[in-house]
Amino acid sequence: MQSDIEARLAASEPDVEVLLAEVLGGQTVRLFIDHPDGVTLELCERVTHTLVDLRERYALEVSSPGTERPLSKPQHFRRFLGRRARVRMREARDGHRSFTGELVGASEEEVTIAVDSGVVAIPYAEIQRSHLIEE
After folding, report:
1. pTM
2. 39 is in which domain, residue-wise?
């Protein structure tokens, strides 16, 4: 769904970056966007109107990333190396589904995060959700 939304917005709003598109409860699509000049109410409204057919199937929430900015692509993780983040995995690893620490690496395949117990490499395919932690 996210790649479809990105492609559709590229034509009408080329400077809008889709940070995360997620379906909640099968009824709501939550869309976090960013823009070089910031996210305004007017921009959220334009994006909402661009996705009119999506609104026929789902309730649509469009908002700015806020302080706990979602991280969903390798370039998002690379941009915020050195910052603290929480990464939730789809399945537990060593008894943990969530890791919180400093982002220390981000390749095309995985993110590396320094946590209290050491450094953990997590493949993007195993990540359920991740976001920055306000410092």
Report:
1. 0.79
2. 2-63
